[in-house]
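Reply to dn_fold:

You asked what the input looked like. This is it:
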Amino acid sequence: MDSDDLLLPDGTVLIPPDVARELLRPLVVGLAARCRADGTNLSPRTVRLLHALHNSAEHQQCSATGTPDARPVSVELTAPEAAELLACSPEYVRRLVRAGRIVGRRAGPAWLIDPASLDAYRHGATA
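and this is what came back:
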């Protein structure tokens, strides 16, 4: 695949699912660090792009027969990253997990949050 296969005439770039899978985590981590550093929030278009990459990466996890890939990708957010998206404190995010309102888990000292669950919570649904 060369770059001409990924560029449409209008300048739109197509991102294949396997590439989305590779790009998503570093993008989320880098953008979260930038937002922490300069105190800004992501634009709605950037958030939509990240969701599209996440959905593409999730789609790539299944084979043509619909069988889940043997190596599922986890694109979990840390509690501070989730807190930034919710405009709240990391402790509030941890309380939401403990209350079962969003899906998350503890990994050593860190709390990891499922982004789909967080998105559902942000739009009025619960875990």
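Confidence is low (pLDDT under 50) at residues 68-74.
Hope that clears it up.
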